[in-house]
Design brief:
This protein is of the alpha+beta class. Among the domains are: 144 residues, no CATH class; 148 residues, Histidine kinase-like ATPase, C-terminal domain (Heat Shock Protein 90, 2-Layer Sandwich). It is 58% helix and 15% strand. The protein has eleven helices and nine strands. The chain has a five-stranded mixed β-sheet with strand order 5-6-7-9-8. Strands 2-1-4-3 form a four-stranded antiparallel β-sheet. A hairpin with a 2-residue loop joins strand 1 and strand 2. The longest helix has 116 residues. The chain is rod-shaped, with a radius of gyration of 58 Å. The chain starts with 12 loop residues before the first helix and ends in a 14-residue tail after the last strand.
Length: 431
């Protein structure tokens, strides 16, 4: 078993120091130890004071300055004061004397501090006048502790101020954004109301336009009926009477005059029939849209020399009168554009019905035109006509698509929903 080491006897501090330095008198050792204890007590008490965040600057300085006299070698003859900025704390009976020990410290460029320790009467000389070297270390340590404390306090205050300023800015910015948001919501609501009003006006205009088309077509048909029933029949009766008179006239001059008169009546009859068809195609109301478009193609060939190829699927299509009239007028407008503007020599017109819709295609081999006109923004007659077609088709729940570019011809496609009931040319055709 290992041998037990003899237990060492622990000596009191003054005896241990005296044992290390036997040449120093024992009373001096005890005095030095007591001074160090006073110094450590002052430092420890200062630390405890500075840890209390609830104390004001004045209270901090008042408590720390009271620790100065007991910590120096001659407490009964020691006074002190501490200055930090404009704040000052003094011990009782403080006055300035020639026997001074001081330490300045800088907290910030705007804030400085100072600790002063005065002896009220002359004392034996030591390392620094009447003051010990350890007392210089003590006052330096106290100054450094106060500097760090106030630096931390200033930093904390700056942080709180920055936080408060940030919160203020956030509140102000939030208030501004709320005002802007409220104004934006108001503007959006106003715009929505104006948009609804515009859409309502547009719908009313489309309705008025459709009603105008029907009214115009009704008047045209009445005029065409009058031309056919009154003027046409009157001319036919005149032709019959002229023919009868020719049988009773033996004179060559009278027979020749009656023959010329009969020719004039024939021309008037043809002109009346043509004018009747132009005003309101009776075929559209009696036989339907496909037959009317086919007759329109034939008329364009005779009047303008335009080769128009028409093709239909031959199926009966129940179309409302408004739709059939609109499509017929739109195709006539497109054919006139092909003649007058596109300088086309050939046009293909086709009519197809599928999936509850009718699709009418008009394709010409003309010179085409630019995209602005195709979009309906042109201010010329053709551009306005295309815009009018688009609006009218849209009102009927259909669509108008135009594809064109300079030198490549023009393709127009009109689609519209079919009606319910019997095919066009029966019940749906009456105005």
């Amino acid at each position: 078993m290992p041998s037990k080491r003899p237990r060492q006897r622990i000596l009191p501090p003054e005896q241990a120091i005296h044992a290390l330095h036997p040449q120093v008198p024992k009373n001096e050792v005890i005095h030095a130890l007591r001074e160090r204890v006073k110094e450590l007590t002052a430092l420890h008490s200062t630390v405890c004071i500075l840890q209390n965040d609830e104390l004001s600057t004045g209270e901090i300085l008042d408590r720390v300055v009271k620790l100065i006299p007991p910590a120096w070698q001659y407490p009964e003859n020691t006074v002190g004061r501490i200055l930090v900025g404009k704040c000052e704390s003094r011990t009782k009976g403080f006055r300035r004397t020639p026997w001074l020990q001081a330490c300045d410290f800088q907290v910030s460029p705007e804030l400085a501090g100072r600790i002063e320790v005065h002896y009220l009467k002359k004392m034996p000389p030591e390392a620094e006048g009447p003051f010990l070297a350890e007392e210089r270390n003590l006052i330096n340590s106290l100054a450094d502790m106060l500097r760090v404390y106030f630096e931390r306090k200033l930093a904390s205050k700056a942080l709180l101020d920055a936080h408060s300023d940030l919160e203020r800015r956030v509140r102000e910015r939030t208030a501004e954004l709320e005002k802007l948001n409220a104004a934006l919501k108001t503007e959006v609501r106003e715009r929505e109301l104006r948009q609804k009003e515009i859409l309502s006006y547009q719908e009313k205009l489309r309705g008025l336009s459709a009603e105008l088309i029907l009214t115009e077509e009704r008047e045209r048909r009445e005029i065409a009926t009058d031309l056919h029933d009154v003027i046409g029949q009157t001319l036919a009766m005149a032709k019959m009477k002229t023919g009868a008179l020719r049988g009773f006239c033996a004179a060559p001059e009278a027979a020749g005059g009656l023959k010329d008169l009969s020719s004039f009546i024939d021309e008037a009859i043809l002109a009346t029939r043509s004018l009747t068809f132009q005003l309101a195609s009776p075929i559209l109301y009696e036989l339907g849209l496909e037959s009317a478009l086919e007759r329109l193609a034939e008329d364009m060939r005779k009047r303008y020399g335009l080769r128009v190829q028409f093709s239909g699927d031959g199926k009966g299509k129940p179309l409302p009168t408004e739709t059939s009239v609109m499509i017929f007028k739109a195709v006539r407008e497109l054919l006139m554009n092909a003649v007058k503007h596109a300088k086309a020599s050939e046009v293909k017109v086709s009519v197809r019905g599928a999936a509850g819709k009718i699709a009418v295609t008009v394709r010409d081999n003309g010179r085409g035109f630019n995209a602005a006109a195709a979009a309906g923004y042109s201010t010329d007659r053709r551009g306005f006509g295309l815009f009018s077609i688009r609006e009218k088709v849209s009102h009927l729940g259909g669509a108008f698509r135009l594809s064109t570019r300079p030198g490549a011809g023009t393709l127009a496609v009109i689609t519209a929903p079919l009606g319910k009931g019997k095919p066009h040319g029966k019940e749906n055709t009456h105005l």
